Amino acid sequence: MLKITDLYKTFNPGTVNEKQVLKGVDLELKDKDFVTVIGGNGAGKSTILNMIAGVHYPDKGSIVLEDEDITYIPEYKRAKYLGRVFQDPMMGTASNMAIEENLALAYRRGDRRGFAWGITKEEKEIYVDKLKELDLGLEDRLTTKVGLLSGGQRQALTLLMAALRKPKLLLLDEHTAALDPKTAEKVLKLSEQIISDNALTALMVTHNMKNAIQYGNRLIMMYDGRIIYDVSGEEKRNLKVNDLLEKFQSVSGGEFANDRMMLS
Amino acid sequence: MNILMAMFGAVSQGLVWATLALGVYVTFRILNFADMSCEGSFALGGSISAVLMVKLGFNPFLTVILATLGGMIAGAITGFLHTKLKIPAILSGILTMIGLYSINLRIMGQANTSLIGQDTMITIIRKILPTPEVLGIKDSTLQTWVVLGIGFVFTVVVIGLIYWYFGTEIGCCIRATGNNETMVRAQGVNTDVMKILGLVISNGLIALSGALVTQSQGFADVKMGVGAIVIGLASIVIGEVIFLRPRNFASRLLSIMIGSVIYRMIIALVLQLGLNTDDLKLFTAIVVAIALSIPTLKKNRAATRKGAV
Fold this sequence. Notes:
Helix content of chain A is about 35%, strand content about 25%. Chain A has helices spanning about 45-55, 75-80, 100-105, 120-135, 150-165, 180-195, 210-215, 235, 240-250, and strands spanning about 1-10, 20-30, 35-40, 60-65, 70, 80-85, 170-175, 200-205, 220-225, 225-230. The termini of chain B are far apart. The model of chain B has no long low-confidence stretch (mean pLDDT about 95).
């Protein structure tokens, strides 16, 4: 359903800050795949997600989503196919606006916006039902400004918004990295639930090896702009953190100690 | 009695300037865009309205609509410079503002246009009203009443339109764009278009205010927009101080109208107390600087109390 071919990207070409972040990435996702992406800093994990979302365009290569070449389609146009949750809990929601207003914006993702009222009575009932499923008590706080919510609540809301209009692909970009471990666990569980309930295809970037093994049906490890390990099915289920560490050390040499990748 | 008359005049002034404040609110607070082009579009509205009446004999009410359209085009230019050519927000506004200075001179063919002996909205309405003698009031009092009435009607209609527009799907997207562009793009909305729309609406309202002010004061001047953004901001922050916790968007907009009136009353008061008119802009600048810094000062105080250094 998603086919990435020979993707290259260099940031700040021709300057001292030049950095080649993607060096020929090929990746194919099947329908309902839940793929976790792991790798160190600068490995290119988030860049791939940003390429799929259209934040940056690649220098070379193509991205095809369900037979449509989206490589150079503007970010806002391809948004109708994608649900996105960001690392920073502030990024996925409008903090000055009410919970219901945020949901209403997400409810119209991909639609033409007109002069109809921005939020209707009927949809509020839908939102109440959906918020109840989060079990955070947000269903009683529809008119609360999102800025007053905690990071975990905001990520949960962003997840809900991402799935409100069923996306072809859900992109989770280290969406629990800014949360405390307990909240992170909750948000991950919720992500898994939303993905399975809605039968979504998902790509989840993470720093946490344990999470990468625990969640999803397939795991990809990136190093230095390339995919160096791709495992799924039975093999993934039997994967241990130690296997990943070994794999990582064999390609990276001694660099491992300096990396932010988490072992827990 | 003198001060009462001055206050009465201030209320009418505040109402014709209120649409300016509402326009500044759309960019500064809703879109989070400090738009300097408003200084040019305010004078543009005045110039268009005056010239269409004096040189081409247009209906004064019609000139207000055309002035608004002129302001909307000015806003679109600022939006184009910022979103398509990626010029920083402040600079885009300044470029439009400077460009409009020459354009306004070209429109009028001179630095100002007098409306003496010219039919304006005020004279037209006065014709259908009884004379001051019949009403038993002074001529200037009736004049002020008419200006007040026109200002009030326009402001209330504009508030209604803003309230409606920013409640629609597009309006919600503009509000969200001022808040978090990344999120809005992720929801499939072209944020460039939203910014341009916001600037178009804002500058249209500001030019409308310029036309009202021109007709009420009886002349248009190429320099009439100088300090307009600060006057708009003053009205907004005064409104914010008075309605500390506005319950909803409507009361927020209403607070700006009242803020504009109170700003004019403060000005009238300090002038009565003997402030030199030359010092007025400095006075306004200081008031706005203080008002805008209050949130930061409060935060610092709270931090010191908690023991932060």
